[in-house]
Design a protein that fits this description.
Elements lengths: L1 H17 L2 E13 L2 E12 L2 H17 L4
Antiparallel strand pairs: 1-2
Helix pairs in contact: 1-2
Length: about 70
């Protein structure tokens, strides 16, 4: 079980190091007055610091290395 968690942490950590964030588009209402509705697309971004991926990667290696073989 611990080895599986370690592998998952390693993969997620590596992905977080490669991609430091992502953006997505969200439709937001600007005006909503009865039958009249105006909306606009707003671009939102989610980002995390690269060291977070490094910490997760190193933690996954430690968990994997200390885990028992099944």
């Amino acid at each position: 079980m611990n080895r599986t968690v370690g592998i998952i942490m390693i993969v997620i950590g590596a992905v977080m190091l490669i991609w430091t964030g992502f953006t997505y588009t969200k439709k937001e209402k600007i005006v909503d007055a009865g039958p009249l509705e105006i909306s606009a697309d707003k671009e939102k971004s989610v980002s995390w610091p690269p060291y977070a991926g490094g910490i997760l990667l190193v933690g996954g290696i430690i968990v994997f290395a200390t885990g028992k073989k099944s």
